[in-house]
Amino acid sequence: MIRLKKPNVVVLGAGYGGLMTVTRLQKMIGVNEASITLVNKHDYHYESTWLHEAAAGTLHHERVRYAIADVIDQSKVKFIQDTVEKINLEEKQVLLQNHEPLTYDYLVVALGFESETFGIKGLKEYAFSIANVNAARQIREHIEYQFATYSTEEEKRDERLTIVVGGAGFTGIEFLGELVNRVPELCREYDVDPNKVRIICVEAAPTVLPGFDPELVEYAVNVLEKKGVEFKIGTAIKECTPEGIIVSKDDQVEEIKAGTVVWAAGVRGSRVIDESGFEAMRGRVKVDPFLRAPGHEDVFVVGDCALIINEETNRPYPPTAQIAMQQGEVCAKNLAVLIRGQGELQPFKPDLKGTVCSLGHDDAIGVVFGKKIWGAKASVMKKVIDNRALYLIGGPTLVAKKGKFKLL
Amino acid sequence: MIRLKKPNVVVLGAGYGGLMTVTRLQKMIGVNEASITLVNKHDYHYESTWLHEAAAGTLHHERVRYAIADVIDQSKVKFIQDTVEKINLEEKQVLLQNHEPLTYDYLVVALGFESETFGIKGLKEYAFSIANVNAARQIREHIEYQFATYSTEEEKRDERLTIVVGGAGFTGIEFLGELVNRVPELCREYDVDPNKVRIICVEAAPTVLPGFDPELVEYAVNVLEKKGVEFKIGTAIKECTPEGIIVSKDDQVEEIKAGTVVWAAGVRGSRVIDESGFEAMRGRVKVDPFLRAPGHEDVFVVGDCALIINEETNRPYPPTAQIAMQQGEVCAKNLAVLIRGQGELQPFKPDLKGTVCSLGHDDAIGVVFGKKIWGAKASVMKKVIDNRALYLIGGPTLVAKKGKFKLL
């Protein structure tokens, strides 16, 4: 068969889902079968599941990212560094901030998550969120600056040393796990009395880590409390101000003064989804079994912008790296089928291996292959999972370069 | 001779002058001859001539300080960590912030320098000064936070990346020398385009490094300009605001927006001097030939709080570490004479070996033993001088611990 024109495959986003799609697709098809274009805001991929470490300052952000050029085959994939403004579904075009519009035959939307503040007043202005590499290192620097300033000021404002974490979900707890290890280092670095530092976690739900096994949750809470975290559960953040937050519990309103507020309680899909006219909820498209947007058979959506209902629980699968990468694999296969016009589309079926929530570099809790684990064992498992994400996208070379392990 | 009571020697300040006095005196006299008390705000000494490196972030502040306990003989010297509030000359007492007043028979005032803003509006509130370890690391963190924030904000405010250094004297130039080396590192660390960064030096005098050899000054200006510093000479800072500074030159007023303003143009002696009723100018006491305050034969003043006129130039000697340490030596000898009631007081005569001004870690200019030097040679000489200060106070052990050298 002779094609008059190679089809244009455009992939938006180089997170777990987008990069998995591209790295798998570049192996499956030949140079002459399709033109692949990858668009990403930065020239690097970052491990968004490691960002809490960069934000706490326990892992340098250079360790959390790698150059996209290191994992794509540049003979097959053209990379454009730019920000996506909108998708024009009618014209099959992607509008970019600084480049001419891109025309696609097949589109993969993998634009990841954004922070969701649920309209809580002041959160957007005064709270940080662990949204990306830039945001993570700003949090690290902000906290360090608070400690440095505390040492300098004549009238000590103890609330400078209070760090509020909004949300006791996965991200909140993992961030707390790093913070409790980081704070003693900061106290030594800036000659600050550790007793002056407060770490407060505020969660509106009646429990920490909703949905997690209660025994493991208790383990996590004990570990973090022992290291100084104060939990305020069943407590809602009403407002964030330049001075801290205002919370309410059982109609009791309280102000908590804090030099740093990190919002880790809500994520949503990309605003590009909303602005492009997809049928969506909070930037997430409920995709068909083959990961396509309803009514747009040439548009795939993978990762945190894709919404899939878990039929066992009748609730959406959580937006995880694990699922995003599995979707990328299926998406690449389905693209190859469409490009070649042969074979059958494969439906997506998540294969959930488990979940591990870290509590600092040396502790964790989790359920893996249906088994509960905690402590050092869970911590090792967490690092295995982190390294696996590197391996799946960049092979052993990338694991050697960015992996989490010690050489003995 | 049997004394009924050992005299109390109280030394205020553990900078170059105070610590030199104590470490020399503890070698000269026996445990039974006098009680020596050293008072200092912190439990560490810092190399104030190295602070510009900590402020720029080119040398960690841990390298710039050492524990006072490491250099004093605790069988002879009692150390009190506290802030001096006032000296009561009539009662021969020193009032401290958190301890009972100290009574002295002999007092050494070595309270060092403070920043002098000459009443320029807003400087105290909005500019940083490289005054001590706490201030230096706050400057470092402030600059890093500006870079981190620039990477995060959607509408980039380029002026965040502008650093204004007020003053092209010794401290200003040495700080600039470190900054020009640090900025490229910061740009890499925070993915910032180096062309967006501005480093501006504003000096009211008609020349950089007033009093320095003009040929050496030209060398320094060329080096710094080549690395990106913009000099505004003959330009006075009129006001400092939260947004930057307002300067004037030849009656032309200009606003320079800047995320960071570091004031490095004025020092004065300690405010404790003013508040204790000494005859003094800007916190500096014009001492007698034996380093005593006029009218108070039991009170010595050494270091930056002592004012001595250079008879050759009819101007005061500048407040340097070299002079402070030489004064400490003479002061210790004179104290020993007074304690023992034998021997003769020795007049102080500065022995100026030279001055080297660094331009980063690998370049410098200076005059040493009357000879002009620059480049690598001057830079090596600067490190020799830095190590000598450690040696004089703490001997070879301290040089090995904190010295500036590379082991090959």
From TrEMBL, chains A, B:
What's an example Gene Ontology biological process for this entry?
aerobic electron transport chain
Q: Which Pfam families match?
A: Pyr_redox_2 (PF07992)
List, for all copies, the residue spans of the domain called FAD/NAD(P)-binding. Answer: 8-328
What cofactors does this protein use? FAD
GO molecular function terms listed in the Swiss-Prot or TrEMBL record: NAD(P)H dehydrogenase (quinone) activity
Family that this chain belongs to: Belongs to the NADH dehydrogenase family.
Q: Write down what this protein is called.
A: NADH dehydrogenase
